[in-house]
Amino acid sequence: STQSTWGDFLDTAVLMANLLVLALAAVALAAPAPAMLRFDNEQVIRFAAANNEQLAAITHMRTALTIPLGLDWWLEPSNVVGRHVDVRVPVTAAANVSAYLAAAGIQTTTMIEDVQTLVDDQFASLSRRQITSSADFDFTVYHELPEIQAYLQTLPREYPELVSLFTVGESYEGRTIYGVKISGAAGNGSNAAKPGFWFDGGIHAREWISPATVLYMLNELVSKYGSDTEITSLVDSLDIFVVPVFNVDGYEFTYNGNRMWRKTRRPNPGSSCIGTDPNRNFDDHWAEIGASGNPCDETFYGSGPFSEVEVKAVADTIKANANIQAYFNFHSYSQMWLSPWGWTDAYPPDYTAQIDLSRQAVAALTNVFGTSYVFGPSSTTIYPTSGGSNDWTYDALGIVHSYVVELRDTGRYGFLLPENQIAPSGQETFAALTVAMKYILANPTPRRVPRV
């Protein structure tokens, strides 16, 4: 009958529609994720010079062989015999590297057997949640940039008397660099009477533990205000500026392009290599020691001081807030608390005060879990650098207490720290940060005439 025929047609149409939905779903599932660079069977090796001849061989390897062989220096060479370096070696370069080091009599230790395994472990446990309130944000896992930004946007709504959201600037690719200002009851609207305290993370994109630790500490400050006496006192006494992700383009690219990306994402005219090292781009002894003029190098200093819009935006924001008396720039890895200078082995005029704060902060950090940190001027404690953030805040702005902190670990995982270390890193680093805040309040050091 006509009714039966029409029923059969409907049944067939429904079946075809269902099949189409299933087919589209299958296509969606089969569609490849954004192409990620892979690191299968790549190792991270560690070695050190036992004498000056080997030191020269390592220096030559860094300057002459890095780009031809595609080497990725996780810990850069220093000018000190016995201080180790860590290098990620592509499979294609492994034989050449082994032969070179053997010829120089340099022994190696394998720190990571297969980089891709650790990358996979990190991506397997990403949050990937919609953030509509701070309660949605898990501070014990890694988060992509949109989730972090969504979390920051919840804070002024949930803590209107305590937190204000500010825009540092816009990145090369058009992303907003957000910061939050935390200021308690003793003068939320007035900067003049309260010292400012700035800390940021994620200047180097691949150092995921840095934004994660900064976010953990930010949450401690806002969520425990009013219930924790010490935190309440500190927040009432300071204007606290927090920028969790400095290098927003690079950080986003570590999630959808290259987990090991370090630099910004601005193309370099005349080169196929993208990006500048933002922590070599500040206008302080720019383009000197510990930085490269080759756009393909991970420490490329850029086409000029402040050539990177992200760096200029952060610098301008710090400069505009004249009450800031402390600057902390969080990195990984090495477990080091670094004070000026990076561009010279000489001690700065405020060395004694800088080391005093560093010693007290590191003692508080170690007291939490026993994590061992070393402290001292960057150039002699880790390796020489120029154009760095904390040297600029110290030299150009006269912010005496300007530090770079290298977070966990010491090389077992390097930049690929498991998420189960986020909370411990946050807890111990926050203990150090609160000591630093108390030090600033007890020893006021308003900005001085620029030193250089």
Biggest sheet strand line-up: 5-6-8-7-9-12-10-11
Stretches with pLDDT under 50, minimum 5 residues: 1-33
Helix content: 25-40%
Element-by-element helix/strand order? HEHEEHEHHEEEHHEHHEEHEHHEH
Q: How would you classify the helix and strand content by structural class?
A: alpha/beta
Protein model, in words:
β5 and β6 form a beta hairpin. Helix content is 39%, strand content 15%. It has 452 residues and is an alpha/beta fold. Mean pLDDT is 92; it is low at 1-33.
In short:
The chain is of the alpha/beta class and 452 residues long.
Q: How do the helices and strands line up, and which of them pair or pack?
A:
Layout: H1 2-30, E1 43-47, H2 52-69, E2 72-75, E3 85-89, H3 94-103, E4 108-112, H4 115-124, H5 145-158, E5 163-170, E6 176-183, E7 196-201, H6 209-223, H7 229-237, E8 239-243, H8 248-256, H9 309-320, E9 324-332, E10 336-339, H10 351-369, E11 374-377, H11 378-381, H12 389-395, E12 401-407, H13 422-442
Parallel strand pairs: 7-8, 7-9, 9-12, 10-11
Antiparallel strand pairs: 1-3, 1-4, 2-3, 5-6, 6-8, 10-12
Helix pairs in contact: 6-13, 10-13
Name its key features.
single chain; 452 residues; alpha/beta; 8-stranded mixed beta sheet; 4-stranded antiparallel beta sheet; 12 strands
